Amino acid sequence: MSASASLAMTHLVPLAKELDEDKVTPGVLGFIVFAVMALAVWGLMKSMNRHMGRVDFPESEDPGGRGGREGAEVAGAEKRG
């Protein structure tokens, strides 16, 4: 280890000791809560994808019998002239 690294460690160790005494950490309980929330979100996303896959509705027929891009172009031409 170089002299500058050991000097930095000598200054950081007391600083880390001060921070550890006053610092609040989430600990194991925080990890467990986070993991449960992550699993809940994953389950909800999976359920949403399943339900969205089941959605099926009939599309209404165009009253003019024209559909898609061609129908829009013809409708635009009818409006112009």
UniProtKB/TrEMBL annotation:
Specify the superkingdom. Answer: Bacteria
Annotated TM spans: 24-44
- What residue spans carry the region label Disordered? 56-81
The keyword Membrane is annotated on this UniProt entry: yes
Q: What keywords are assigned to this protein?
A: Membrane, Transmembrane, Transmembrane helix
Q: This chain belongs to which protein, by name?
A: Uncharacterized protein
